[in-house]
């Protein structure tokens, strides 16, 4: 009941934060109503000229480059779903917040329209396409995206058949969302039986929540409010069941899916042994021959074939993949993770770490003001985007192996993107930067010493090097074994104890300025991560193009069943991770650590 009450209050607060366009207000009628702007709508949605002028005037007055227009008569279900995801006041200034919208119309400045490449993109065919586009455009206008209620905008009629596709377009797993919805209804029923008084109160609040949120609204007036409220439990039940029955969008439906599947089949025809180098007999950090197996596991991230071993040096504690992957092996296992098929999921995860990004950027504050910052292993530049809120006058550049650096340039998250290996580019960038960061980067590299040497070259004397890594000495790693997410096999090649890294920095002329453990703790990387890995291990995605077994109906059903059964496990894991994070902060003993060091002159 407490959660329902809090959700109701939160939704009303978010609704109150939405501005209402005034089509009858004073607007400049001398200019074309869309001068400098583009309107993108879902088929069937129309806006009159007065509404467009009001929208343009509002966007220019507020300094917006993207404005999501919400129909005043948006249906009840869509309105409640929107307010679960969208906090207009907070998301307006949060550079990393996802771009949720109503899926009807987007007003986009010509500049953002051009940089996002929309001139040659196909027009949206459904609300789901506009949901995806809203997320994309928020990335191109991270602090200049807004939302407004548009009375003159035509609303689309609700269609339960679209729900699964729309949830996926919003970045939400339809199966898990529906399973959670069914679990909530079951909990209400249980409360009615076990505690009738409290159960009746909670059920009444759930039943009447649409009216409590929307009925007193001055701007949003769903035409179906009374009917949607009266039928809410029945609609929730039928909608969740229908969504669960809706087959997921299969990779084979994509234009390039057959070629992708054939390419993976050809690579796997010769097995995975060729992706590994010979096993080494000594530690790559200290050369000691005293090695012991720490953990063995398959690929629990993507479910690609292969098994991986991490060994630990008994002398220095360094943990490394042994045998390690060849460069061809790395290419195979990285493929479709950060880009391609897995690009959208990776972007969602990276986009939800704003607090972590700001904490990294703020670690520099006691020691100076950076003017030129190179983020090594930047991926698509999410850290740089968030760090601009801390250091608005700093030039941020990024370096990575993937194409994401060029997308980060187009978004304006970094000034210059360098694609390639850091050691190969170090001479070209020598002495250019007063700050270099490596956030969860060194553990991915084949030779951490070469990466540190490159940082020495690139940094100017007195410059700062900021490094964040998983902490292999975290006690939780032994408790969770192969299901500790930061092992991250097969991508992580080296897991470096903090003491080893401090020594390597000192040998290269760095002075340690600050060290953080609890503050660097990655929330939800322990228990929630373990549940996700276990669920994926029990029932891997049968639609993946590298799957070695057919995607039969039984396998699809098994995966759906495992995902549904994992929902309560995620709830328990979330509670455990919350406690774990509080303990980590209090004891300075998290699952990751940060080091800040200064390069001394000479």
UniProtKB/TrEMBL annotation:
The keyword Transferase applies. Keywords: Methyltransferase, Transferase. It comes from the Bacteria. The keyword Transmembrane does not apply. Pfam families: Methyltransf_23. This is Class I SAM-dependent methyltransferase. InterPro entries: SAM-dependent_MTases_sf. It comes from Streptomyces inhibens. GO terms for molecular function: methyltransferase activity. One of its GO terms (biological process) is methylation.
